[in-house]
Amino acid sequence: MAAHNFKHALFCAFITLLISYPILGFNLEAQGINITITGADTTTILGVLLAAVVVFLFQLFRDQIMGRVGDLTSLTAGKHKEPMAENRRAKIESWVLTGIVILALFWPFFMSRGAVDLATLVLIYIMLALGLNVVVGLAGLLDLGYVAFYAVGAYTFALLSQYLGVSFWFALPIGALLAATFGLVLGFPVLRLRGDYLAIVTLGFGEIIRILLNNWTNLTGGPNGIGGIPDPTLFGMEFGRRVKEEGNTSFHETFGIAYSGEHKVIFLYLIALVLAVFTALVIRRFMRMPVGRAWEALREDEIAARSLGLSRTAVKLSAFTIGAFFAGFAGTVFASKQGFISPESFVFLESAIILAIVVLGGMGSQIGVVLAAIAVTILPELAREFSEYRMLIFGAAMVLMMVWRPQGLMPMRRIHIELKKQE
Amino acid sequence: MQDLLYFSQQLINGLTIGSTYALIAIGYTMVYGIIGMINFAHGEIYMIGAYTALIAITGLASLGVVWLPLILIVALVCAMIVSSSMGWAVERVAYRPVRGRHRLIPLISAIGMSIFLQNYVHLAQGSRNIGFPALIEGGFTFGSDGAFQMSLSYMQITIFITTLICMTALSLFIARSRTGRACRAVSQDLGMANLLGIDTNRIISATFVIGAALAAVAGLLLGMYYGSVDPLFGFIAGLKAFTAAVLGGIGSIPGAMLGGLILGVSESMTSGYLSGEYKDVVSFGLLILILLFKPTGLLGKPEVEKI
């Protein structure tokens, strides 16, 4: 056994060297037409060697290490707590959530402009992740082209405002409904496909939409995007220094306060907050409704669910459409926040980030998804020097999460009764 | 005559690209045939193969080696070794622990791996595209001067011949060798093969290694053909190859070859007669249509859902 372990460990270490040294150990540099190659600095090479040694030692003592880790987890798992009574838990939960929302309402007035701006972005991601959570977490449909619906929402607002001068508040429902229609139309033919085929087809749709936006230059401006998207107004009051549109007044003049650029940022944040809370509440209701139960039933066992009379297409389509609707919502807010959109904001990576949020948070769990959205958006901002490692860490986190904790950080809890073990 | 020449040119271009898609598609189709998962990171393994080949070529050039066949063979061998180690490691780290769980879990793990590998190369080698030296230059031209001339470059011929050799070797390997027989057995029934004393874990690893080695060949060929590589190089090519695998019928090796060729030709016809910008739209559209109307592909077997 020991000899076998040693050989295996040596092999693993060798493979580690083989996959890391050629890529990390040499740097290609293009100088004009010629390419030169240089060896990497010593720290990188030492790092590669260190990695190989770590792999070697881990594989050599794998059984002992895994045994130790297993003991630790079984210890913590052994401390079973009697769960709180369901109605009491729900009451506490709703109070805590209300408190957080109220805090979030007043929080921006004491913060810097950059922080509020970032918070708006977090809220947009929360909306997106909550929407995708319906599709992936509850209905179990892996949608890799989710960003397409986000793009539909954003471009709807941008185009409507550019060509027809439609304001944010009109564009918001239109964008969301149009995205939902896209979801319905695209979903109808593809939803009969099995899980992994569906993933690829949605990915293809996402790419097609992006390519169309990129090449339909007459309408969308192609890679240059669309700029000058108006800010939202508050009952006809604009937040700019001067009023742009006839008949509107400006916010700071109406209330007789000095003009400040922060008003607009805070206003956008509040809109995003209200919409995010709205999204969360609506989806929460859906989860408790028969259709929500049907999503989960179909996810757990399609054949059983169908034999109980659920229409596969209708149930899946409803999840897909609702998910697309909220992506459209988020897209409109995003377009308004940025003031400028281009196809570059809607690449596959964006879909992957939203998916990573849902997966890390725990598929199906709303609180988990919200926390994950906050973490995924804010952590790279806090550690700016590591920001280029962001996607690397994302990828690794997705893999590790699937290996160790596929249910996510805060898995969804269901009301259930556990059978008592027979003594 | 002009039209015929133009058409043959598109056909040749399409077959060139298509045969490399087929090489990548083999990796998808073999893995799917055996464990029923989409190896999303396969495109990245192909990209790593291209990078390794480029590093080997540049390294040899800086050592002063000028004999072309030696350079190509060393680059090919290096790329195949590094890519297949990568394939082995990826299976070991990201797929084996989640095997047999719910369908979505290996898929998400594979997407994570794909993002990880993309950024790994991005951080190590920078995000800009790097020029790939054109080692094989020249070719035949047909047609009169002043009008459209059809060209068949030596590079294209190299691609055809290499692909042909790889495909023949693979077919022989699958049909004749002990491991190949075991591969077929495992893809028919994993549990039963296990009971009959086949080391299924070893066979699954072998599948990943073979797929990765073929992807590395494609990486070297396409890198030279396109003339540049960048870390995102694998993503679209991987999608295309997956489309090819589905088109031919996923799980079927001849299907992957056929699918690759059809996809390559339809793509080059689109860019030749319509517009180059929409060729990706056409291939994704093709994928969607096939999945909708004939999910088993051209040569695939229908999958029966059992309770």
Describe the protein:
The complex is a heterodimer of chains A (423) and B (307). Chain A has 423 residues and is mostly helical. Helix content of chain A is 70%, strand content 4%. Chain A has 17 helices and 4 strands. Chain A has a two-stranded antiparallel ribbon. In chain A, a hairpin with a 2-residue loop joins strand 1 and strand 2. In chain A, helix 5 packs across helix 16, helix 6 crosses helix 7 and helix 12 packs across helix 14. The radius of gyration of chain A is 25 Å and the shape is globular. Chain A starts with a helix and ends in a 19-residue tail after the last helix. Chain B is mainly alpha-helical. Chain B has a single domain, classed as ABC transporter involved in vitamin B12 uptake, BtuC (Orthogonal Bundle), CATH 1.10.3470. Chain B is built from 11 helices and 4 strands. A two-stranded antiparallel ribbon of chain B has the order 1-4. The longest helix of chain B has 34 residues. Chain B is globular, with a radius of gyration of 20 Å.
Task: Provide a compact summary of the structure.
With about 425 residues, chain A is mainly α. Helices cover about 70% and strands about 5% of the residues of chain A. Chain A has a two-stranded antiparallel sheet with strand order 1-2.
Kindly list the characteristics that best describe this protein.
heterodimer; A: 423 residues; mainly alpha; 2 domains; two-stranded antiparallel sheet; two-stranded parallel ribbon; 17 helices; 4 strands; globular; B: 307 residues; ABC transporter involved in vitamin B12 uptake, BtuC; two-stranded antiparallel ribbon
